[in-house]
Design goal:
Largest sheet: 2 strands, antiparallel
Oligomer: single chain
Number of helices: 5
Radius of gyration: 14 Å
Structural class: mainly alpha
Length: about 150
């Protein structure tokens, strides 16, 4: 299973981030490519405990949702609503300059995957509940992969 705990998967994600362009067109959803980049950055800040989000109601028990979302090997469905704190039209970080936003995201991925952690893993995720380091690394890969596929990268 792919995860940001494996260096080859990190390298793949970094190559795909490098391939993004301000002109990249979405295949689904409402976000622009720049909103998506900021959304992913906000996600990594959440994963590292530097951004918070309130728990939200889920359609299934969190433990079951987490297992399905992280460990069932199928692509995530389109249209799953994020929480307001990571929604660029609500409480998420607004886009600024495309290249700088991409640089920030790449720096966050490097920090998230560094062997020397300067952050503490949060205990819980607003949708998925209790999380381990392995869960966070898998989520980081899947969330980034989902949105890169959204823009053809």
């Amino acid at each position: 299973m792919r995860t940001l705990g494996h260096s080859e998967d990190v390298d793949e994600i970094m190559r795909r981030l490098h391939a993004l362009r301000a002109s990249s067109e979405r295949r689904w959803g409402r976000m622009s490519v720049q909103q998506m980049v900021c959304h992913l950055s906000d996600g990594f800040l959440l994963y590292m405990g530097e951004k918070s989000a309130r728990p939200v109601p889920t359609p299934a028990p969190r433990k079951l949702l987490k297992w399905f979302a992280l460990w069932v090997p199928i692509p995530w469905p389109h249209g799953f609503k994020t929480f307001p704190e990571l929604d660029q039209e609500l409480g998420g970080t607004p886009p600024a300059e495309f290249e700088k936003d991409v640089d920030k995201l790449q720096a966050l991925v490097k920090r998230f995957t560094s062997s020397r952690k300067d952050f503490k893993w949060p205990e819980t995720h607003p949708h998925l509940g209790r999380m381990t380091e392995t869960d966070w690394q898998r989520l980081g890969y899947l969330h980034t992969d989902h949105h890169l596929r959204q823009f053809g990268c």
